[in-house]
Amino acid sequence: MPLITVDYTDRLAGSFDRRGFGLALNRLTVKLLDARPEKCKTRFRRTEEAVVGADAETFALVVVEVAVFPGRSAEARAALGEAVLEALPGYLGAGAGPVQAAVHVAELDHLSYRSATLGA
């Protein structure tokens, strides 16, 4: 059931291989958290602007949020975060410039989560 959200700044829009990165995220989640491939849901949200730090330098920003049901160890969640950060540069493309990246793997309340395939 992993629900994955990738926020990225506008500056990366033309060079970020989102589909490739999304597929990589799904594979990593299957491998490291023992998720079922068909349950991985990854979406991307383009952000016009982000401010990083307190100086005038402009960074691109990528923030990955992974929500999973309870039961995965803290070590497994941390391993996923590290693997995501290692994989990301390969999907940013040439000329991305400095990119700040963050990953957060959190547990989701399974009692309140619902999912369905509509129109099938």
TrEMBL record:
InterPro entries: 5-COMe_2-OHmuconate_Isoase (IPR004220), Tautomerase/MIF_sf (IPR014347). Gene3D superfamilies: Macrophage Migration Inhibitory Factor (3.30.429.10). Signal peptide: none annotated. This is 5-carboxymethyl-2-hydroxymuconate Delta-isomerase. The lineage of its organism: Bacteria, Bacillati, Actinomycetota, Actinomycetes, Kitasatosporales.
